[in-house]
Amino acid sequence: MEWFDLGKKIKIFLTTLGIFFFLLCFGFLGAGLYFYHVAVVPGKKNFLKDKKVSKSSPLYPGDQWYKSAKKYHWTQMSTTDHLKLVANYLPADKPTKKTVIIAHGYMGNKELMAPYAYIFHRMGYNVLTPDSRGHGQSQGNYVGYGWPDRMDYIKWMRRVIEENGKSSKLIMFGVSMGGATTMMVSGEKSVPSQLKAYIEDCGYTSASDEINHEAKQLYHLSDFPRWPLVPILSGITHIRAGYSLYKASALKQVKKNHKPMLFIHGSKDNFVPTRMVYPVYNATEGPKKLLLVKNAPHAASYQTNPELYVKTIKSFLDRYFN
Fold it and tell me: Residue 211 CB: number of other CB atoms within 10 A?
């Protein structure tokens, strides 16, 4: 009788344990789906600041210039999933073979890159400002965090070369997610030889590192449940968007880069923490320069010290591009 009672208790315990683990797994899956919609599905994000440019901002002249500047509307199809991608091409005032390709940030678009386009246009460059997949006018139902986007930007480079000739000289510039995209591009063998240098501003080390950081920063999640929540989110992203958050690594990509790269980061960046710039800076094999802008929060290095920002870019390009 005692053995029968013991067996019954063990069975009840195992059943209860099984139900507990089932509910736990179901809960994590639900949380993973929720965070997929928060982090990966395009749309309005409450945690992002208003992107309107005031008249007193250093960004304002470029913002106004872009609205009336001569521009050509370009389109192309992504290579693997046949999404329609859109970009604006703004020719320099004087004919030139030099073109900068600009990558915008998370939930940004080509128009928001106007102040940066203005910097390079005043230096005499043609400028191409694409909308990344899932942003602006480009098709896509997910944010790529730079990983699938890297191949789109390489295709844009080839489009510029097709339009302007094989003697074209290109640089790639990006801010935030665009900075990470720029670094992810740098590790690809298919980058055309006409691409001469990279400039990245406040890009993250990897999509998984950034998601981990934001889960801690915005939701105050400790190591558990960030693990296994982030791996679950990565798995959902792999199934629904076709890429892994762990594979989307700027750090791994810059290790394969041998071309000049300028790294820019604000010293008070809490969104993509300043500490992330050091591993990528140390990892690249090409000529490099690091600019830390004192007191600059995320993606605000130009606004914080526009003179230093432009001077550093010009000095870098004068040395490695012209």
Answer: 24
Dihedral, CA atoms, 66, 144, 185, 278, nearest 10 degrees? Answer: 90
Could you tell me which of 201, 80, 101 has the C-alpha nearest to residue 151? 80
Residue 313, pLDDT > 90, answer yes
- Mapped to the 3 state alphabet, what secondary structure does 130-192 carry? EECCCCCCCCCCCCCCCHHHHHHHHHHHHHHHHHHCCCCEEEEEEECHHHHHHHHHHCCCCCC
> Tens of pLDDT along 113-131?
999 999 999 999 999 999 9
**Which two three-digit tokens encode residue 256?**
């394969």
Pairwise CA distance, residues 304 & 308, whole Å = 9
71-88 pLDDT per residue, tens: 999 999 998 899 999 999
- Cβ 109 vs Cβ 143: under 8 Å: no
